[in-house]
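Here is one chain, start to finish.
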Amino acid sequence: MRAVRVLSCSLAICAAFSQAIAQAAGLYFTDRGVRPLGRGGAFVAGADDLGAVWYNPAGVAEAPRELLIDASWLAFSSTFSRETLARQSDGTESVYRHGTVTGTTPFLPIPTLAFSFPLDAKGTWIGAFSLIAPYTAISSYPLTDSRGLPSGSRFLLVSLDGSALVSPGFTLAWKNSRLRVGLQASVLTGTFASKVVFSGNPEQNVLGAAEAPQYDALSTMKVGPIFAPALALGVQAILSPEWRIGASASWQAPLDSDATIDVQLPSAPFFDKATQTGNAAHVKFSLPPIARFGVEYRPVQNARIEVAYVREFWSVHDRIDITPRALTLEGITGLSGNNGPFKVQAISLPRGFRDAHSVRIGAEYTLAKDVISRPTTLRGGVAFEQSAVPNNYLSPLTVDLDKVVLSLGAGVEATPKLRIDALVSYVVSAATYVDPRDAKVPRVAPVTGNPTDTQAVNGGSYAVNAWVIGLGGRYRWE
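Its structure:
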């Protein structure tokens, strides 16, 4: 039992690290950019400004002298009503229902910054520098639930505050009268921060002491500096004045980064003299290639309609490998009779992700000059996006449900060179229930590098509410 207690205490380190890394795995809640998302994310064949750096680098060829600055706020909230399957010593089972908790995000505008310039006198070759950040929900959950009891979500996520990920990149584009081609090199960089609570108690029954607050260990994890290069290739073909097609493909190198983990050990008596020695670790996992295809139709000069398809190959994200480096727990009462150290072992966590697809349709219509004094373009779009996370792997950390994204936007030519853009998107998703019998996110114990058969903690009901509100500007000069 003493050895089991030590292994359970090590949850506070390894489990905190593994859970927080999951959100850094690129679960971007929706697509990005004020103008492109105003078209429902259908911006592959018709990409013709620097918003193309995310969707199709070939579109940079249409923006030889441009500065683009925009920012969007992902106003995200979710509710989690946890249910846990309790197994008694006599073999009987019952479902224990925890109180509801709500996760929220701070007001944090997510930016796009891009600048392009011609590389030759004819404007055949165009270069562009860009700096973008993914549309990821930086969520926080309370430590107590709606009944004032310790929150069931605390074992999955407390806070992601302090995370900062950006992708600086350079795009090289070429064009002739019928074809545009773009190649982009970028790197995902920054840091990722998380707080999460895990139990240091060896008991597995829910109604007993397994989740007693005196066994809680609040853990703070920071990953970085992250450095994960990426490449993207895009093409556009002008078939006729009315029709054009586009396609792009991107590849992201695995995230392979150092990290630090600091743990506030439980207040239970046999941890009174316990300490953590060392805080260094290493993490590695794969991020998905992404393929995009679009067809745009321009029935008249001032109208554009695009249908696009996106495939994200999340099945490559099959595991997270975590390797602590000289990370030990010392002074735990009863360990080998001398309070000696326990070295935390490497583990490999199954993720169970699947390939995900998205279908979008978007349109733009520029109002006639006799309707409004300033040239104004109205936008609208709708997208269906499948979640990459199977239901039995859902958790407050990775709440990504199948969803429909409804978008409206507008662009006003404030001057002949300056366009101001605005966006409002609403995310529609159905509440989802994860049967605790099918839940797959366990407490993790690093026993010789493998998870133990522990109680799953992600069963219950999930609901999401999200808006994207954006504002930006594009400046072009001759």
